[in-house]
Structure formats: C-alpha cells, structure tokens
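ok new one. same drill as before - structure tokens go in, u give me an amino acid for every spot. 337 of them this time. try not to just spam alanines like last time pls lmao
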C-alpha cells in the first residue's frame, strides 16, 4: 500500500510539473508575441507631465483591450519635433497619434479659435460642460475634415497674470504694464493691447531674467509653469483672472485611422476618453501642488471677482470680432452654456 501511495505521489508531482512547464511556456509565448500593429505617439512635454502620463495610460489601455495586438509607443520631451512639426508629419501619416494644443491645431481648423477666446469661460467646470457636451463633440468631429481625427480633450489649465511690483486687481491696473507674451501668439498680443497694457515678446526660457531686470513688469501663464520656472521669486503677485483656457486635443492621423478596423477604432476612442479623465485628475493635482509650493515661496494670490472679470471680458469685443466674426452665435451659446 505504501508503495502504491508513493507511486501515486510521484505521478501527481510529475503531472504537476508538466502542467507548470506548459503554463510557463504559454506565458512566455504571450510575452514574446509581437504586436500586429505598432503606432507612434508624439508628446512634447516631459515624462512626468500630466499630458504625457495621460498618453501612457492611453497606450496601456489600448494594449490591454486589444490583448497586445496594438502597441502605441509614446515619445515624450519633443523627441518627434515641435507641435507644429508633428502636425505636418501627421497630415501624411508620418506620425500616428499626438496630443496638441488647439492653438496650434487652429492653423488647420480656424473654427477652433472659438474655444480659446479670452474670458470665454467662467471657470473650469464651465469649460468642461462645453467640451464634454454636444459642442465639444462637434469640434472633435470637425477636425476630421483636416486630415486628423479628434479623439478626446485634455486639460491644460488656465493662464493668469503675475507681476513684480503691484497686484492686478482691476482693469485700470493693467494700463501701461509691460507684460511678456509668447512671440508666436498674435492673439495674446491683441489681448494685452485691448487691456491697454504693453505686450513684450520674450522667449519662455528668458522670462525670469526679463522680470528680474525690469525688462517686463510681469507675464501670464498657468500655475505649473509659474512654479516650475520659479517665476514666483521675481513676480510674487499672482492674479487669478483665468483670462484664457486653451484645451488640448488627442488626435490621430486620418491616414492611420483608415487602416484600422472599425472594431479597433471603437476601442481606441473608448481608451482615449478614459485617458482624458485620468489626465484631468493629474492636472488638478499638479495645479494644487504648484499653487501650494508657490504660496509657500511667497506668492500673494488675488482672485478676481465676477463683476471685475466681466469688465475684462467686455474689453475683448473687438478681438472676438477679429478672430471669430463668423462664429459669434457659437460664442454666445458657449458663454451662456
């Protein structure tokens, strides 16, 4: 009897070993199986930036939902070029996916200017009501006529004024102030002029020294940029006026899109929207962290009230006409959305 029990035990161990080896081999085969489709994703921000982490989550979700058949390689830190260069390559299928600012995309789809007009949104919740609703979906679809397919919306926060010598609390405070602007942003140049300030184009990397030496009285940007570049050391007065909210869009080249099956297109769209929720969460966390660090470093924050902000919005009338004269009906709908 003991011999039989021993023999059975040996047999069970032998069978278990065979099954174990088979399972290991199956796992190895799965890991080594090459994806059927490998696609590129261009991202110009650093590896730990919210939009980059959102892109990585998107790639992971697509890989999971397609069981590894589709692999998306995210190239961050501008490895694939500037946003302008990336868009040019995407028109011909040289790059498959990207996250781009609509300020860049508007050169191909001018109607997108509507969504980045100054003082358009009351707050973040207002913007997301618009973008997550019928209007936002319509603009995603409109991009499809320009060799790109719009997938989802990403957050980039709001831009605000910050100054070195005095706090901006009302419209009159802007008069005569020399404010740094992006040299490529004619819209922002027009905004500062409309507020009776003096726009001064300065390269982003030189803003700190420009404020420190008095070349400019201040600048405008979002919390993460203000804090990460340590601008709070030379411009401690931060006015939360939220003059622009420029959303960003995940897009795919139309050349790439038409080669993908309908089933996989649905998976990609679903994953893009899920990654958008994730990126927005990361952005809110980053904003809070940057704001707290800046305040700890000496920043004085002034939050502009609704009445005063309306005066700034009223000063934008000519700018709205210049950039969105044919879309004023849409502007009115968004403001009251």
């Amino acid at each position: 009897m003991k011999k039989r029990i021993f023999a059975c035990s040996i047999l069970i161990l032998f069978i278990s070993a065979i099954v174990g080896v088979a399972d290991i081999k199956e796992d190895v085969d799965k890991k080594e199986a090459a994806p059927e489709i490998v696609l590129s994703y261009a991202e110009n921000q650093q590896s730990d930036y919210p939009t980059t982490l959102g892109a990585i989550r998107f790639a992971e979700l697509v890989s999971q939902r397609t069981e590894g058949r589709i692999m998306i390689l995210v190239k961050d830190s501008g490895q694939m070029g500037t946003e302008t260069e990336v868009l040019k390559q995407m028109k011909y299928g040289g790059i498959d996916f990207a996250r781009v600012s609509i300020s860049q995309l508007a050169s191909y789809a001018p109607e997108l200017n509507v969504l980045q007009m100054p003082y358009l949104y009351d707050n973040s919740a207002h913007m997301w009501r618009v973008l997550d609703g019928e209007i936002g979906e319509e603009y995603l679809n409109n991009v499809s006529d320009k060799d790109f397919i719009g997938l989802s919306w990403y957050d980039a926060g709001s831009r605000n004024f910050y100054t070195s010598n005095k706090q901006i609390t009302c419209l009159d405070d802007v008069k005569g102030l020399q404010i740094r602007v992006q040299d490529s942003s004619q819209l922002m140049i027009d905004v500062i002029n409309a507020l009776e300030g003096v726009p001064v184009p300065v390269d982003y990397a030189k803003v700190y020294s420009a404020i420190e030496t008095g070349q400019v009285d201040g600048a405008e940007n979002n919390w993460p940029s203000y804090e990460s570049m340590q601008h709070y050391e030379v411009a401690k007065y931060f006015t939360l006026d939220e003059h622009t909210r420029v959303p960003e869009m995940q897009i795919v080249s139309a050349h790439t899109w038409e080669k993908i099956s309908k089933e996989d297109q649905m998976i990609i769209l679903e994953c893009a929207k899920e990654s958008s929720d994730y990126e927005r969460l990361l952005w809110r966390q980053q904003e809070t962290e940057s704001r707290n660090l800046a305040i700890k470093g000496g920043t004085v924050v002034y939050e502009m009230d609704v009445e005063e902000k309306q005066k700034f919005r009223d000063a934008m009338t000519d700018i709205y006409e210049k950039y969105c004269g044919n879309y004023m009906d849409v502007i009115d709908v968004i403001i009251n959305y």
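Confidence is low (pLDDT under 50) at residues 5-15. and btw Residues 262-296 form the longest helix (35 residues).
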